[in-house]
Amino acid sequence: MPHPATMFLLLTIVVVIISWICDIYGLSVHLPQSGEEIRVQNLLNADGVRWMVENVIKNFTGFAPLGLAVIAIFGIGLAQHSGFLDACIRKGVKHRKYENRRVIALVIILGLLSNLIGDAGYIILLPIAATMFRSVRLNPVAGIVTAYVSVACGYSANLLLTVIDPMLSITTERAAISYHCWEMGVGPMCNYYFFFVSTIVIGLVIYYVTCRWLLPDVKENMVETPFVDYKPLSRKERRAFYLALVLGIIYFGLICIATFSPIGFLRGIDGGMLYSPFIMNILLILSVGIAIMGIGYGFSSGRYRNDQDVMDGLISPIRLLGVYFVIAFFASQLYACFSYSHLDKYLAINFASLLTSLSAGPFVTLLLFILITAIINLVLTSATGKWSFMAIIFIPYFAQMGVSPDIAQCAFRIGDSATNAITPFLFYMPLVLTYMQEYNKKVTYGTLLRYTWRYSIFILIVWMVLFALWYLIGLPFGR
Question: Is 455 helix (H, G, I), strand (E, B) or coil?
């Protein structure tokens, strides 16, 4: 496989050529919401070329994960440069017999629970997981892959309600009301019971695949990173560590007061949390908190003496950001061209229409729906974007079979999560490859695919089996 930046450039060229071919044959689809005809747009005609030239810079600067990644990497880089992250590792590592397994399990749990605060897990957890694996003599690339799969493939699973739950349930309820196909309401907790249990099941699957295949495969084919012998903290370092924790507690305590107290200026204008400044800027809040703890540790431990040292800490991740900028530039052009050409909508709507044309019972159709969603997710990764038009197609379709909207939504979320780790169209793929290249310059998308395909297959199969058993027994999916 070529370098990640080259791969995204080649994929962009492929999308441009396919859009030209589709335009020759006049391929189009009709949006289920409005019946509007969406024709595949040619990127090689005058309008397409003009659009590409005029929007190169806009595509890059408007790339959704770009600003988030920069903010998070500044915070993580400062905490790393000050020695705070190393202090956390040294404080946590006990050098006992089963320490490896404990670290692997902890990374998986954090990855599965990270979607509680949106996409922060992709940006913050991956470099921390690499350091955690390295601390117990495991390859840091394996740590990145384990954390990535836990965040991506377990995106729907959680022990608590996440940001995505109310977003999807609102779309589901609107589709059911619009087509008068279901009288009962659909709330954010309509899938809670199922995904609570799924968190445990998917966590065990990821742990098994990691120990059975990933670690031996990485050890055999990946260049080993030199082991860092983490010594116990000195008295001065322990004092600095606890001071940093106190600063973190104070900071996040103030954030909680600003969010949940009567003051509540971090809540939404209507007093809700769904689109509040707290939820929409959670990554910035976390990054600032990590940076504050890093600065506190740096000054208390003697590593930092003035503001110039702090600036050096902020500058330290620039090399990593340079690699990310190059990859993200070409990736942003691919995603923008793919969206402009309407190839994503064309493929997704046609796959959905294929399923609705089949004649099968509700149980078989639900399983096929999961598979179709998993395939669609390879080219259209936004959960809310897919469900916005798929709900209008499938909520009435399944209602005619006697399947409630909450079950249809649950099936959608399984397919939407299982293949996240293997699609090159995931917005955070450039960042994942950048983190991996920090430890091995030869890492490509092919390397990542080699390590992740088993996770997607196993998780999809096990999740479908769990769904089938849950559905056949008649257990409630939520409330």
Answer: helix
Are 304 and 298 spatial neighbours (Cβ–Cβ below 8 Å)? yes
Could you tell me whether strands 37-39 and 28-30 are parallel, antiparallel, or unpaired per DSSP bridges? Answer: antiparallel
Q: How far apart are CA 375 and CA 347, in angstroms?
A: 10
The DSSP element (H or E) to which 38 belongs, if any, is strand 37-39
CA trace torsion 51, 57, 59, 62 (10° rounding):
-140
Which one, of 198, 186, 162, 188, lies nearest residue 405 by Cα? Answer: 186
Element (H, E) at 30: strand 28-30
Percent of the chain with pLDDT strictly greater than 90: 50
Would you say the C-alpha torsion 271, 273, 274, 276 has a positive or negative sign?
Answer: positive
Q: Is 303 helix (H, G, I), strand (E, B) or coil?
A: coil
Residue 445 within any structural domain of the chain: yes
Report residue 472 as tokens. Answer: 């056949």
| 20, containing H or E segment | helix 4-24
User: What span, in angstroms and rounded, lies between the C-alpha atoms of 343 and 165?
Assistant: 28
Contact partners, residue 173, CB within 8 Å, separation at least 6: 185, 186, 405
Radius of gyration of the chain (CA): 23
Residue 23 resides in a domain? no
φ, ψ (nearest 5 deg) of residue 98: -105, 25
Per the domain annotation, does 48 fall within a domain? no
User: What is the C-alpha separation between 36 and 15, in angstroms, rounded?
Assistant: 23
Flag whether 45 is in a domain: no
Token representation of residue 298:
């740096």
Question: What's the rounded Cα separation, in Å, for the pair 398 and 355?
Answer: 11
452: nearest Cα among 151, 104, 125, 102: 151
Number of structural domains (the chain) is: 1
Q: What is the pLDDT of residue 176?
A: 84
Q: What is the mean pLDDT of residues 198-211?
A: 96
Separation CA 348–CA 375 (nearest Å): 9
252-265: b (≥16 Cβ within 10 Å) or e? eeebeebbeeeeee
The Cα–Cα gap between 248 and 292 comes to 7
How many other β-carbons are positioned within 10 Å of the β-carbon of residue 351?
17
Which structural domain, as residue segments, surrounds residue 282? Answer: 65-322+343-423+432-473
pTM, two decimal places:
0.91
At which residue do the structure tokens 């080649």 appear? Answer: 10
Map residue 361 onto helix, strand or coil. Answer: coil
CA 81, 85, 90, 95 torsion-angle sign: negative
Q: What pLDDT band is residue 230 in, cutting at 50, 70 and 90?
A: low
- The tokens describing 50, both together, are 């003009």
CB burial of residue 366 (10 Å; 0-12, 13-18, 19+): buried
Contacts of 172 (CB under 8 A, 6+ apart): 186, 190, 387, 391, 395, 405, 406, 408, 409
